[in-house]
Amino acid sequence: MFGVILAGGSGSRLWPLSRELYPKQLLNLYAEKSLLQSTFERLNKFIPAENIISVANTKHQANVKMQLGKLSENSIILSEPISKNTAPAIALSVKYLIENNKSDETVLVVPSDLLIEDNEKFIQTIKEAQPLVDKGYIVTFGIKPNYPETGFGYICADNNIVKSFTEKPDKQTAEEYIKKSNYFWNSGIFMFKASVMMKEFDKYCPEISAIINKINCSDKNIPFTEFEKMPSISIDYAVMEKSDNIAMVELKSNWKDLGSWKSIYEVSPKDKNNNVFVGHVIDKDSKNSFVYASSKLVATIGLEDTVVIETEDAILACKKDHTEDVKQIYETLKEQHDDTQKVHKTVYRPWGFYTVIAEGKGFQTKIIHVNPGQQLSVQSHNHRSEHWVMLSGMAKVVLEGEDHILSPGHSIDIPVKAIHSLQNPFEEDLEIIEVQKGDILSEDDIIRYEDIYGRV
Amino acid sequence: MFGVILAGGSGSRLWPLSRELYPKQLLNLYAEKSLLQSTFERLNKFIPAENIISVANTKHQANVKMQLGKLSENSIILSEPISKNTAPAIALSVKYLIENNKSDETVLVVPSDLLIEDNEKFIQTIKEAQPLVDKGYIVTFGIKPNYPETGFGYICADNNIVKSFTEKPDKQTAEEYIKKSNYFWNSGIFMFKASVMMKEFDKYCPEISAIINKINCSDKNIPFTEFEKMPSISIDYAVMEKSDNIAMVELKSNWKDLGSWKSIYEVSPKDKNNNVFVGHVIDKDSKNSFVYASSKLVATIGLEDTVVIETEDAILACKKDHTEDVKQIYETLKEQHDDTQKVHKTVYRPWGFYTVIAEGKGFQTKIIHVNPGQQLSVQSHNHRSEHWVMLSGMAKVVLEGEDHILSPGHSIDIPVKAIHSLQNPFEEDLEIIEVQKGDILSEDDIIRYEDIYGRV
Question: What tens digit of pLDDT does each residue of B96-113 get?
Fold first, then answer.
């Protein structure tokens, strides 16, 4: 069996903790592990790492690789050059398996932002689904609804055979559904044979299958120009709602879609006033509220049903029933080209990470963290000088061909146009403060010299 | 006539914008001027600057001096070594006037945190009070109440003669008061002859008068040990409620006590949904709310009657009717020795200001701003090295007796124990980034060399 984790989400609804470049599946919301890592571990209980495929957007690839790399070096990461909803992501992984002679393998597709509390029951459900997959069905998993949720899709099924799918219903319809015994929430989890799904794509969504069949999905760099042409549609819409080959198995494990601050609040442990406080929070008389302080003190007084999320560069204060509207704030910021929707002040790179701690006219200051054994590319800048002060660990700085070994308290100036590289060939983490000074301070002002020095 | 501005407030109720070391009278809440500066200018319309005395705590002296210095170099600042409520502050200024042979002068005492909209009416009221002062009365100013406020004291007066004072009443009592025509809010503004007030202190509050008569109040450094012994009581309690020598004049100008976030909200211009938004705020569907973003983006959705105050290191989110409880948060922080109640990350000094932009194990980073013509003391540190990168303006750095003139993009390292001084003898503002590095990073690790070099 192969597992496919859909990790392409944009994270707009958990802003400001999630960002375009750091979506919710990468966040540690509770535990030490991110949602992506938890999902991986859940599958890894019954699927070997080398059979687990994560499909993520290219721009998240470095982070996905780093997070999964901590659990196993063997899993497969497929990069979508542009996010296109679930149908293209599933087509990509199915085609990858077919290219690798795994057409007859069972594929289990799971989103990366679900909370499944009882993994044993989940595994049991998967086992129940296997005979249906073997018979050639695409199996979807349904959850018995316990209240008339209008934010989910519903499945109508009798004796494992799906009769119909419904998109998010209105309140009245949802209330009718939960009175009946054959309506289920659509969990977003699917199971099928690779060859079966590809046939359904050919039949019901030839726009996708025509393009995916032209692409070599085993290639590290999938061509943007081809992928871009695919329609941005969900697997429900592209295949499930059209095919007459769909079965359903009830998933009896506790299941939560962690799609909004309200849903995060609901699954979190609460104090006696039904509050959830994370981080440095001082409260007086608040009720039913969720306060998340990531870097500063947040003091709250007399709040009710309110969500306050504090991050380094943006704060959200929101009525709990309005958390779905966070998406609109995110879209507004995007329209205004406000980077607050896109990046955190901390940016992760394969060699470590950096945090912008101050910006102003003509300067920018970062704390740069280089992991042991890592180095930044050999580079120069046409418009800025850089000034480095060592904080902890040891650094090797190559400046105009000369090596400097620096310890904490040392500093070095990198003049405009000087060719330089920051390296940490030692065993400890390296942390430095960088002050950039110049009239133009752009990440684009960089000339890389990998060809000359043969380094990355 | 002399004016006395009581500028000793601690600023607990406007936290986190006000701090123990930067109380509300120093804040620019609306205008370009702080409450203290606005109060000074209001008095300066009819009292010459050299007759205006500001009484402030020693720990605020540098800021009070800087703010008032921008308006006039001639006004008088008296420093209380410890804040002791209004009675000791008024006794201090009265004694100062007596020492300077001004016993017979009229004194007008005003708090520094009032908003008086119509200064012409205020001046007119002062003129009406003068004959009563000349007759030997202590005149208090009353405001005709227009709603049953329970947060103010009330004065009962007939034909300018005060019958009684009432501390903050309960709701029912306040409602009875506003039905009567002879009850007024106590404005906290007083007018009297210096000699008259001193006699009342002698008679009704000998604990204060005994101590104040031992102190030389014209001395720049009033002894802490003496001042500390004074009781911490209000002028109302010490004198006004006891004396039979009190008159009242009605103040007809618009008057607001800016004591809480709710009162600041009330005096601020509002949008069509009755919101007040200051700074970078993006809102959707909020009502009757006050959002103040000082350094970051604050996004709000669906809030009602809520106050959100964002500062560099602390955020307050509070129901508008609970803003009086902010004081309790402030006290909690004080008990926990959390400096968030005490200082901002920006600290003002006579030579300019600095902002701590990042702190971590073994390092601290500041942006230091030196005003033209100013310099920091000649100093050295036993436990830290300092690394300076010039951002804007020009600097003169004296390092181990040697002068260095540095322009933007230059940097210099100050080793542990090296004697150094940062100076800006030029006409432009100077801004630098300082990285401090060392195992002990304390403001106390400083040796000053003013004696050797003859500089401050």
Answer: 999 999 999 999 999 998
